[in-house]
Specification:
heterodimer, A: mainly alpha, two-stranded antiparallel sheet, globular, B: mainly beta
Chain lengths: ~375, ~80
């Protein structure tokens, strides 16, 4: 097989990102959560008091770094391009639903790969759901689904989310008392701020240069029979797996996995929602952050949708809870009845949007 | 719009739908592929076809058309 320059760059970037993710865990981030876009945005939602779930409140510098890394490198390479106006409200709503799906599973596609690299087989069920969701989304793309085209906007519009992130970082440094921080649980576990920020910046730069995207990888496989984009995540998986084996973090199985549950149906359906929503949006949560940094205000709106979705998930008790051991008895976690209804509702609503935007396009044509 | 003969050309789009419509209009000889990184930071779909590039090919989701010249791509149309 011929390895193109693009594929080689993706492999290098994916490998580096996998190593950085495991190092972040060694430095304090929760296990199998060196990076998780969904969990970290959820922590930020708690940190800025959009929800009150005590264990998951922290302004994660990695997210700020990702946006600013993409922003700075796109300015340096003259790729910063303020664009937007492609169904912003629908993108916001889809962002909300993607986050509900991710938090039912307890992780975004990025963390799904990291969990898998640490031997968490629940993530394999999630991966099947994710692939099925992207398959479904790709079906609609092939039938003509589109959220409409974006248009040039004023540079300030494209830079707004990066400016907001700079302000957020400054406030965290100058006035941390404004924010809520977890005293226990995943939100209390974190690498030192400067290291987290630098890790975010590096991954932001790498992801912008290589266009790494988990959802895009599967979509290209399905629609164009091209495996270039997915090689980044394969390299990420392999490097994180090696790092986990070296550091003793690898534990194969379904039970007692860190911040994970073994309610298989809901792991599958949660990631199905994520895969379908991400395909409709044109990229996974990581990609949305990178595009937002590059000046895409549609992606910035999507990120706000993800943030709102995190608050909704926790305020209304929709998010998954991890498996636990109570008085010596292993208790399978999963999601509440409300959470199950929400996941099913998200699938129905996403399919309805996909149908409307597919057949309306055909009618216009 | 310039006639560029039978040169290899690449069209980029705002979305996959635009690329599909374009392929339908151009017909045989037009293939859809991922957009090469050197053309765009977006990870969408592009259409590769043999010139000439005609006005009838344009749809509202077309972003740009590039022509290959000595292994490099030069933008010849922007929508």
């Amino acid at each position: 097989m011929k390895i193109s320059k693009e594929m080689r760059n993706l492999m290098i970037a994916g490998g580096l990102i996998g190593i950085i993710a495991v190092v972040l865990v060694l430095l304090g981030n929760p296990k199998n959560m060196g990076f998780c876009i969904a969990c970290f945005i959820r922590d930020i939602a708690g940190g800025i008091k959009l929800h009150t779930a005590a264990p998951v409140r922290y302004v994660r510098p990695e997210i700020i770094g990702l946006v600013l890394g993409s922003f700075l490198i796109s300015l340096a390479t003259k790729e910063f391009n303020a664009r937007g106006g492609s169904s912003p409200m629908l993108r916001f709503c889809i962002g909300v639903m993607v986050m509900i799906g991710c938090l039912a599973f307890l992780g975004c596609p990025f963390r799904m790969v990291l969990r898998l690299s640490a031997g968490d087989l629940n993530a394999l069920i999630g991966l099947l759901g994710f692939a099925a969701g992207i398959g479904c989304g790709s079906f609609f793309l092939a039938k003509g689904f589109s959220l409409g085209r974006s248009h040039r906007q004023a540079p300030l519009e494209g830079a707004a989310i990066s400016i907001v992130n700079v302000i957020l970082l400054l406030l965290v440094l100058i006035a941390p008392a404004l924010f809520a921080f977890s005293e226990s649980g995943p939100g209390s576990m974190h690498a030192p701020l400067v290291i987290s920020l630098c890790a975010g910046l590096i991954v932001g730069v790498l992801a912008q240069r290589t266009r790494m995207c988990m959802a895009g990888g599967f979509r290209d496989l399905y629609l164009l029979k091209d495996g270039t984009l997915i090689t980044g995540f394969i390299a990420l998986f392999i490097c994180a797996l090696i790092m986990n084996l070296i550091t003793g973090n690898f534990k194969l199985g379904f039970t007692s996995q860190p911040v994970a549950h073994s309610a298989h149906l809901w792991n599958f359906l949660g990631m199905f929602v994520c895969g379908l929503g991400c395909t409709m949006l044109g990229g996974c949560p990581l990609r949305q952050l990178i595009l937002a940094g590059e000046g895409n205000s549609d992606s910035a709106i999507t990120v706000l949708g993800l943030l709102t979705g995190a608050a909704i998930s926790h305020n209304f008790g929709l998010a998954g809870s991890a498996d636990s051991v109570v008085e010596g008895v292993y208790k399978v976690g999963g999601i509440s009845t409300k959470g199950k209804v929400a996941v099913i509702a998200c699938i129905v609503i996403l399919l309805a949007i996909a149908c409307v935007k597919t057949f309306a396009n055909k009618k216009e044509k | 719009m310039e006639d560029k003969g039978n040169k290899v050309m690449v069209a980029t789009f705002a979305n996959h739908y635009g690329a599909m419509l374009f392929r339908k209009t151009v017909g045989a000889g037009c293939t859809l592929r991922p957009v090469p990184r050197y053309l765009s930071s977006s990870c969408g779909t592009c259409a590769v076809f043999n010139g000439p590039f005609l006005k009838e090919y344009v749809n509202e989701n077309l972003e740009a058309v590039y022509e290959e010249k000595d292994g490099r791509y030069e933008m010849i149309y922007e929508n």
